[in-house]
Model the fold of this input.
Amino acid sequence: MGFIGSGSIGRTLARLAVGAGHQVVLSNSRGPETLADTAAELGPRASAATSEEAAAAGDIIVVTVPVSAFPHVPAAPLAGKTVIDTCNYGPERDGHIPELDSKSLTSSELLLRYVPDALLVKAFNNIFFKHLLSLARPAGAADRSYLPIAGDSAPAKAAVTEFIDSIGYSVVDAGTLAGSWRQATGTPVWGTPYGPYSNEQGQQVGEDAIRAALATATR
Done:
């Protein structure tokens, strides 16, 4: 697993991935030396590198950066790779992006313009990082939660589903990248089903609840 961006979601995913036996290579915009402590804390399965090195190292790459940083995501090493996009658009942080403000594109479709040869899957953008850590459950657990994913490549979706299963979650296929607005910021499936931020343990969310939330989204 390669990580482009190592914020709250990135570090949480890396922790879950290491716990599931995956190797992780972390990167951020400030350089690998700033991630040395994080990598050391995660143990021998974790290392820090540049974004280009992380993109080249992983079989699956997690892009978890501000939308405004999309132009800086290294495209060449992502060609042909399964890439998980966890990103959410926030004009107050990212500045206004006309295609996203007009809703002519989803944020994942915008990312795809910068990494056109990647096999992009939207995932993990709808859950608070503390809930992501606390709600992970082993396969077969009665209180396992579901996460929506969206993408245009069936093999990439299968690879992401396998990864998500390995770290403690089941998956609802939410359709294409063009339809990934159904899990964007402020939609019914975003945040709310897993409980308020004030409850750091979160609450279990089953398949039916995720499907219902996706179905009631409006644009």
The chain has a mean pLDDT of 97. The CA atoms of residues 10 and 64 lie 6 Å apart. Strands lie at 2-4, 24-27, 46-48, 60-63, 82-85, 119-122, 146-151, 170-173.
